Amino acid sequence: MTPPELPPPRLETLAIHADQPDHHEQPAYPAAPSISMSTTFRHPHPESDFAKTGISMEDRPENPSMHVYSRYTQETRLRAEEVISKMMDGHALLYSSGLSAAASALDFYMPSTIAIRRGYFGVHAVIKKYCLGRNVKVIDLDDEYPVVEGIPAGDHLDLRQGATLVWVESPLNPTGEARDLEHYAKRAHDAKGYMVVDATLAPPPLQNPFKHGVDMIMHSATKYFGGHSDLLMGVLAVQDYNQFKLLWEDRSQNGRVPGNLETYLLLRSLRTMPLRVRRQSETASKLVKFLYSLTEGQIADTHVPDKIAHGCVVKQVWHSTLQPRATLEEELDDTVKENHDFDPSSQITGGPPTFGILISNETYATFLSHYLSYFIPATSLGGVESLIEQRIVSSPGMDPRVMRISVGLEDVEDLKADLIAAMTRLVDERSP
């Protein structure tokens, strides 16, 4: 009897079962996948069927007939990529870090013009490196995009290498504010160019940029995909299968593959990713609401002393749940150009677990993170532990009053109490 057909699995189910083996072929497969550590594999006997077919660049890289060398394919990595591909609604490849993924995106499109504004400083460094020795123009995100026909990559691909590349980070690091993906995707395509979105701050299940017309999604999987502050990884995803194969060929040649152990840790972490991210998003939104109330002086919590209210410590809060918003009285120079009128509710479910705050003075910003108990003063984001950082420590040129908060899995009331106690002590001991 044929079993009834099930409806398409939801994200939490995909995270656990997307790479599940066929029980008809492996009737006793392990519930927890084994880690594959080998970098090389024995060649088959020359008279075997495997030797007659083998693996080549024309093979299906997501389902090879055999493994030859881990720079091409490797079992643990294939399983992790299968899960991420289903979660992202595309074809995903893993890279050794987020920045190696960014560099691979540039090598893939080979743009002659790059439109970008703000975002992670590491991406700007990668772009600067890409531009060396090339006649590449870097323009602002809202400048007019030049129409460049580009150079076709080959007969099998409708890819215009050398065209304009629009690089959008959304939500934005470190503020957590969203940009209008459909707006920039349309502008890119009108200029016969392409759009890459760095969606690190809002992974599945918070947003699916492919629904809004983007051509490629990039993630630093070090953050929410890994989720435990113990691995480096990057992700690129496209929806066109032929482009995916070209990306795979590029990665096979440039060697930007992640290590086997890191990939195994990632596969483990993917199982709980939807649950983690939803909880972190919910907690972050509550903390944003609380901190915003401190700037407005509208505090319902009786445990909050007046000395930390009315912007005495926190002057400004940025987060996608506060959009649309008017330009604030004390807007930073590099945020004033952003489209604050954009409503991200149709683009992001909830809000990112990472957001930014502006502290009233540099002294407070320097010491606040070291007065906290449950927030670790450290860079990065996306782990199960909450982190807080004065951004100038890691991002040169940032206003020293800007702090980034990455919310973990602690109880929201404990985090709120920690912030109240630290800010109160800050005013008592460091008030100018």
Largest sheet: 7 strands, mixed
Count every beta strand, where a strand is a DSSP E run of 2 or more residues.
14
Gap between N and C termini: 78 Å
Residue-averaged pLDDT, rounded? Answer: 92
Number of helices: 11
Strand order of the largest sheet: 1-9-8-7-6-2-3
Query: What gross morphology would you assign?
Result: globular
Strand content: 5-15%
Task: From the 3D structure, determine the CATH topology of the largest domain.
Answer: Aspartate Aminotransferase, domain 2
Oligomer: single chain
SSE string, helix = H, strand = E?
HHHEHEHEEEEHEEEHHHEEHEEEH
Helix content: 25-40%
- Rg of Cα set: 23 Å
The domain tally reads 2
Helix/strand-derived class?
alpha/beta
Indicate the CATH architecture of the largest domain: 3-Layer(aba) Sandwich
- CATH class label of the largest domain: Alpha Beta
Organism: Malassezia equina
Region (Disordered): 46-65
Cofactor: pyridoxal 5'-phosphate
GO molecular function, one term: cystathionine gamma-synthase activity
